[in-house]
Amino acid sequence: MTRFWKGLLTALFAAAMTASVAAPARADTWAPPSNLVTPLNQVWQHVESTYGDLYGFRNYGWDQVFANRGYLNFCVRWDSPQPVTAQQRDAVHAQLARQYEKWTDVMAGHNGFPYASVPIKVVGWAVRDRNQLKWTDNSVDIYVNDIRENAPQCSEGCGRFFNRNGTYPRCPGGVARHYDQSLWLTAGMGGGAGGDWGQRIGSEYYMNNLNSSDVHILLHEIGHTFGLDDFYDWTPSGVGGFLMKAGSASVITEFDKWMFRDWWRHLKNRYGF
User: What is the pLDDT at residue 27?
Assistant: First the structure.
């Protein structure tokens, strides 16, 4: 090897080592607006004092996103006697993705969050009667008359709620066809419910809002999936209406966004950030 190449390789190696050593640690860029600092602190203190296993629980929406390395799979529990066309099926998926994006876009580029987007895929539908589903293609798995909680249930073998270790040995399609959450659409239901298992809202409400910009009940329940609290009996100081205080807002407000980001701030070390 000539002196030239030896010198060049030595210089490149030294530069690489210098760059490695000099690389800054990932900064904590938590910087909410000054008027939100106090109410955000109040909210987190309330969460810490009222959640039974706040830091030990490992199936928040955040955990699911990181287990999948950046995406979420869904199964629809069609708890309704109404038929569903292929066009409606696709619209249900598209609206679910749009509503989730309203939350996950809050995190894009914020405080080291590594995913610019979190794709949403519907991998299955559960129904009482196969004839209700007016399509013949195999784009989604179909579960017929598997009843749990008096409603059609997607295969437990494919559900993250039933398989917290991230493996799905009893799921015919394996990891690729597992579902992290259920979108449970129930005929005649008012209001909603949400948790690590997914979201439950009225089927008529959802189908009537397939083209709406904000499906506020679903947005509220998605907030719960990621850990956000309800505010039935108190309001943080200095803030008015916001989505997670049911009935006081119909869109994600600035305060909702910073509460969401605060969850990431407190959980991110569990993912190495």
Answer: 53
pLDDT of residue 29: 82
What CATH number does the domain containing 205 carry?
3.40.390
pTM exceeds cut of 0.70? yes
Q: Would you list the DSSP string of the chain?
A: --HHHHHHHHHHHHHHHHHHHHPPPPP------HHHHHHHHHHHHHHHHH-TTTTT---SHHHHHHHTTS-EEEEEEEESSS-EEHHHHHHHHHHHHHHHHHHHTTTTTSTT---S---EEEEEEEES-GGGEE----SSEEEES-EETTEE---GGGBGGG-TTS--TT-TT-GGG-BSEEEEEETT--SEEEETTEEEEEHHHHHTTTT-S--HHHHHHHHHHTTPPP-SS---TT----TTSTTS-SS--HHHHHHHHHHHHHHGGGGT-
- 19 located within any domain: no
Which domain does 148 fall in, by range? Answer: 34-267
pLDDT at position 235 over 60: yes
- Judge whether 128 lies within some domain: yes
Per-residue pLDDT of 165-182, as tens digits, reads 888 999 988 999 999 999
Tally of domains in the chain: 1
Residue 6 lies in a domain: no
